[in-house]
Design goal:
The chain is mainly beta. About 5% of the residues lie in helices and about 45% in strands. The chain contains one helix and 17 strands. The protein has one helix spanning about 1-20; strands at about 20-25, 35-40, 55-60, 70-75, 85, 90, 100-105, 115-120, 130-135, 145-150, 160-165, 170-180, 195-200, 205-225, 230-240, 250-255, 260-269. Strands 1, 3, 4, 7, 10 and 12 form a six-stranded antiparallel beta sheet that branches. Strands 2, 5, 6, 8, 9 and 11 form a six-stranded antiparallel beta sheet that branches. A hairpin with an 8-residue loop joins β8 (about 115-120) and β9. About 30% of the residues are buried.
């Protein structure tokens, strides 16, 4: 009986470790020593210099002082673009899983909205190693938003994730609850709260426009019998596709965005 319970415990722990691969919520009060910080040469404005002795530092939330979060500023003594990196330790991604990177972020001041860039490296922690841009938003909201990025294409590899502050003369940006985990979110459900998506006109005729809240990386048009009738790579939020050569009917736009995958039905008349 003891062996049976031990086996159950081992299986349960194994399941937990597999479902959540990495998690950091900064409740330790400092950026963990396993992280890599890369600072710029800018001098932080004296009004907040004690809060930001490094590229990224941990602050208590003003509205919830029990919650500790990572923060980085772009307000300097002389106006200049920030270039401040916070890089996770190596994260080993299991094979054959539906892996998702997620994090929470927001700006502090509505009059000075900082942006955030998230990059991924499958090599080291030098800036040039980060060849995948998972997310790029020039103005974060002042309320917490959870962002998502699918890691399926990187399964089986070791990655580093970099959170980059590159705003100019704003205030500061917060990051919290960095997580890599298995996720059952489907193609129609993977959408971060700011992932605005508009497809028009509807019905379409000679063209269809896509307006997204984040960069669209790949677009496929699939007909009702599952045939891919259009496929092209992009790196843009606003896309115009010529549909004049497609027959009338119902189609599906399948898009891979900086926030994950999403599918939208549209009609060509």
């Amino acid at each position: 009986m003891k062996k049976f319970y031990i086996l159950l415990i081992v299986l349960f722990i194994g399941k937990l470790s597999y479902s959540q691969v990495f998690f950091e919520n900064f409740q330790g009060g400092v950026i963990p020593s396993t992280f890599t910080l890369i600072n710029d040469a800018n001098t932080v404005n004296t009004a907040i210099s004690t809060l930001f002795p490094d590229a990224w530092d941990v602050l208590a939330q003003f509205t919830d002082t029990a919650n500790k979060v990572a923060a980085s500023t772009s307000w300097f003594a002389a106006v200049a673009p920030a270039d401040r990196w916070m890089i996770t330790p190596s994260i080993i991604l299991p094979v054959g899983s539906n892996l998702m990177l997620s994090w929470k972020c927001k700006s502090q001041d509505p009059a000075y909205l900082d942006g955030l860039i998230v990059k991924i490296s499958t090599a080291g922690v030098a800036k040039t190693d980060f060849t995948v841009t998972a997310y790029n938003n020039t103005a974060e909201d002042t309320v917490w938003k959870t962002k998502y990025y699918s890691l399926q294409s990187l399964a089986g590899q070791s990655i580093h994730v970099a959170f980059v502050q590159q705003s100019t003369d704003k205030f500061y940006v917060f990051v919290d609850d960095i997580k890599v985990s298995n996720n059952t979110i489907g193609i129609n459900e993977v959408a971060a709260e700011n992932n605005y998506l508009n497809v028009y006109p509807t019905p379409a005729k000679d063209f269809v426009n896509i307006q997204a809240g984040c960069n669209v990386n790949l677009v496929k048009i699939v007909n009702m019998i599952g045939q891919v009738v259009y496929e092209k790579q992009y790196d843009a939020k606003n896309i115009k596709i010529n549909t004049s050569n497609l027959q009338s009917g119902v189609y599906f736009l399948q898009m891979e965005t900086a926030q994950g995958k999403v599918s939208k039905k549209f009609v060509i008349e």
